Amino acid sequence: MEQFPLIEVGGEPFERGRQHGQQAADLIQFNLEGYWRLFKHNAGLDRATALNQARQYVEPIKGYAPHLLNEMRGIAEGAGVSLEEVLALNCRTEILSLGAIPLHQECTALFVAPEATGDGHTIVAQNWDWSDVLRGGTVLLRIEQPGRPTVLTLTEAGMVGKIGLNSAGVGVCTNFLRHDRRRVGAPFHVILREALNAPRLGLAVAAVYRELRADSGNYLLAHAEGEAVDLEATPSDVGFLHPEDGLLAHTNHFLTPRLQVGDRGILESDNTLLRHGRAIRLLRAQAGQITVETLKGIFRDHFNHPMAICRHPDPSQPEIERSATLASMIVDLTASEMHLTAGEPCQAEYYTVGL
Q1: What is the CATH number of domain 11-96?
Q2: Where are the domains of the chain?
Q3: Homologous superfamily of 113-354 in CATH?
Q4: E strand or H helix at 355, and its extent?
Q5: Full DSSP string of 61-125
Q6: Start-to-end Cα distance in the chain
Q7: What digits encode the pLDDT tens for the residues 208-245?
Q8: How far is CA 340 from CA 116, 249, 348, in A?
Q9: How far is the C-alpha of 76 from the C-alpha of 160, rounded, in Å?
Q10: How far, in Å, are 19, 60, 254, 303 from residue 156 at the CA level?
Q11: How do residues 7-43 score in pLDDT, each as one tens digit?
């Protein structure tokens, strides 16, 4: 059974970053090579220009979460790369958004409250779909940090975080959103990590609502006690959604009416509407009896293949533009454990990692 490398780090920001960089140095180089290709293809940026773009985010990150900038400095030292290269990884969404070619934006995220599960547990989950060029660069990062909850996050090597849970019962899933508005500000993945750092759900919400968001994104935030809120954010506005009958699903378009003006997700994805409707229908069909096994079945769904909830590379596309479900993650917040696949869930077995 294939599993993601588990990187365990601890200590103050620079030190835990250094440990991350040392343990994942080869994978960080792999991701950098992949992103140089994507920056060039999607945005027309060579390596030097992409690094110049990354430098613009130093001050916004310092203003939003200075400890994470120090963590990035540690990652750079540990991996033997420059801070600008680590910034380019952590700001890859913002850099790629400069391009005319649509991003690989096909994630499906779900929340199930205790009243909708068969065992009274709280679950947040998603299929993470991304460029097939980056297959093999993902890690599971466990972060022990003084004064903050322990974090278990599925992320790309060299990045400070993405999706997962923490020891305070907070869970975070996400979807890429694309809107006409953008600016230089706090990067998408830095905000995700700050939400995962939160000791309570309200502070995870506050992490998204702060000023200086650089780009758009969806943040599905949940707590083990059964509450969740979904935040659809642009750089200048945030819409919010609450579960209905204990269920919530989100894909890659805005559901908040005022934010639908300027939404580019539906234009750039011929399947986001289908995946959203399909996921909700499959959830409602088993409401009150949903389990981790139920969600495994939903994440393996192939309606509209290959652009399905379980995404597969489309052989009709150029290799550089193909995307796939690189990981499936089901977080049982009640049990503080994560069920994962390394690759498409229809082909890979789920394995379990406890916080």
Answers
A1: 1.10.10
A2: 11-96, 113-354
A3: Penicillin V Acylase; Chain A (3.60.60.10)
A4: none
A5: HHHH-HHHHHHHHHHHHHHT--HHHHHHHHTHHHHHTTSSSPP----EEEEE-GGGBSSS--EEE
A6: 20
A7: 998 779 999 999 999 999 999 999 999 999 999 999 99
A8: 22, 19, 9
A9: 12
A10: 15, 21, 25, 28
A11: 999 999 999 999 999 999 999 999 999 999 999 999 9
Residue with tokens 């378009």, as numbered in its chain: 253
Tokens standing for 223?
């707590």
The pairing of strands 247-250 and 170-176 is unpaired
Question: Of 327, 322, 335, which Cα lies nearest the Cα of 310?
Answer: 327
What's the token pair of residue 116? 């909708």
Return d(Cα 275, Cα 265) in angstroms, integer.
Answer: 13
Look at the block and give the residue holding tokens 């003084």.
146
Give the integer Cα–Cα distance in Å for 177 and 214.
12
